[in-house]
């Protein structure tokens, strides 16, 4: 069957129109579906992680072990008398570089007196100066002491006994160098590290009204030899040479013998005199 050319043209145009309508329908359905289901309407199955929580988790995960004490102005404050752990600074022996300043206290002389200025026999590298009040307390009470040791370990360990206040040792900036201090009902102590060594200011607070701040304000550099000379009483009697058994110096036993011998001679002479008197009367 022979098909005419106009017929073929009409068939091709109809097919093209049908295909075009089909494509338009698919496009419309796809656009409608995209508008109906937006990303915000679909719930997320993965929980959101905030930057803050991520940073916190990371810091916690990489946290390094720390020293079990508190470092403050060159001192390591230990709670419950614990020993420093392996993460605390090394306690290396230190010798003070100098100048080796020794501190005393400019206390009123009508209220306190100096009783000691020396190196204790068991602490050859330590100098201790001690004052006591003149009245109001028993002997040995109310003392105030300033000491310095030229050889020590740094950081210096300060212990808080079990049950003690964790904040009992606090920073003290009223000292010649920033240090630490502890004040209790019976005892007050301040410590600092300077060129002369490790210094300690101690007060018997149970029998003295002097505070650490007041005492620190009275700290003055002193000459140890002058303080020691002021403690030495002035001799009023010329010292005598020790007894050797020779010369004119007599021991107490020798003097007793001389006295007895002289008494014997006296009695003998008296007896002789009485005898002569009796014989003279008989004649």
Using brief descriptors, characterize the structure shown.
7-stranded antiparallel sheet, alpha+beta, 283 residues, 3-stranded mixed sheet
Radius of gyration: 51 Å
* Percent in strands: 25-35%
Tally of DSSP helical segments: 5
Helix content: 25-40%
Description:
The structure is a single chain. The protein has a seven-stranded antiparallel β-sheet. Strand 10 and strand 11 form a beta hairpin. The protein has helices at 5-36, 51-61, 212-217, 224-231, 252-282, and strands at 70-72, 75-79, 92-95, 103-105, 112-118, 126-133, 144-149, 151-154, 156-160, 169-172, 179-183, 188-194, 197-203, 219-221. Residues 235-256, 258-263 and 265-283 have low confidence and may be disordered. It contains five helices and 14 strands.
Q: Would you kindly provide a brief summary of this structure?
A:
This protein is of the alpha+beta class and 283 residues long. It is built from five helices and 14 strands.
